[in-house]
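User: I've been going back and forth on whether these two constructs are worth ordering. Before I decide, could you fold them both?

Assistant: Sure. I'll take them in the order you sent them. The first construct and its structure tokens:
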Amino acid sequence: MSRKLTQSAIKTKTITLSAIFAALGACVQIIEGYIPTSFPLPGGRLGLSNVVTMVILEKFGLKYALAVAAVKSLIAMLLSGNASALPYSLAGGIVSVLLMALSFKLIKGIGHAGCGIIGAWSSNIAQTAVGAVIMSNIHILSYIWILGPVSVVTGAFTGILADFIGRTLLWTKK
């Protein structure tokens, strides 16, 4: 027996799942901060919490992905007590979601790995720009070129992981 969900029920389900994914993303972001990385660069990490926003972007769209990115950053800041990380996290999350959405829409056949690379690179650019503003030092922007190759590797990995997770979830967009 199949039943049709009303628009209100679908919206409630979408909001609920987005909230769950925002909390999951925040937890992953905090846990990832404790994992030692093999990247010898400050800021070099896998970006596993970005998998959450990529899945939400694909399943529910830009509006929900932006909300998840923002809420994920706020929850992570509140739970970790690291308020100084908030502007970096918000900027990286929001800019990467916007550019990933744009790339999915404009670049035919980009795939999740390509979208993940764009997301990782744009997140690094946004976070480095925030650092340059906060520290009043434009020379920090040169660090973007050092983080670039890391973005390619980590972005491809998170994109492939988001594709796998997105394909295995049991709900559909509509």
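The second construct, handled the same way:
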Amino acid sequence: MPDEMPPEPFRGRPLDTVLPAGTPLWRVHHEPHAATAFNPTLADPHWHGSRFDATARAPFSYLYAAPELSTAVAEVLLRNRGFAGRARPILRGSLAGQRLSRILLVRALRLITLVSATDLAAIYQDDWIVQAEARDYGKTRRWAAALRDADLTADGLIWQSRVDRPKLSLVLFGDRCDGAVGLDGGGGGGAIRLDDPAGLELLDRVLGPYLAYVEPAPAFAPAPTGPPAATAGPESAPMTPGRRPGTGGSIGATDTGAGGASMETHR
């Protein structure tokens, strides 16, 4: 577990992978920020922020995204959310102002890959750098700065998501990705407000396999204890187990919706 400072001088030789032009990516972002906007916020060297944010020591704008819809959602809504022996509730109020968007790469991007054991060994690391919890993000941000310095033309980093293994998350460096990201104008792209009916229906489908749901909890019909009433009509019929009132979306469904693409985010 290399919970240690990057070596100086840096001796690793990062491996890379190329995402071709036209690759779709998903991200969750706050209004009124555009789907393609990079975040200019510099994180504190020690507290708060995310895994590979920029700091005053290594300033750059950044954009977190994921190749799959489910990963983008899980990275934002399921981080540090335990089970406690039951399905994980997400307060509907926490979704206010959040949008899910699909973007496209306008040109090919070359990313430092931190996915496999050999990728990590190439920089004298193991999975600590991509699996460390939030209390260690100050340290992982220091590693991101070292990796940027070790490969001055890399456009970002890609790694295995901690909350959606084995799927991938990535971060793009704004100072190296000028004009590289565009809006997806077709194929079910665009932005979805997560707190409106369409967004809630989408989350109903995406979060179900992760045993998570948006509050208020879905209504479950009690098991019948006697013979059915002879006069029961459509209005009095029990709700199908696992469905949220008014959406018709199954909590356990695996369809990811949104144009049939599988998606996910980290911001």
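Notes on the second construct follow. Residues 218-267 have pLDDT under 50 and may be disordered. The radius of gyration is 21 Å.
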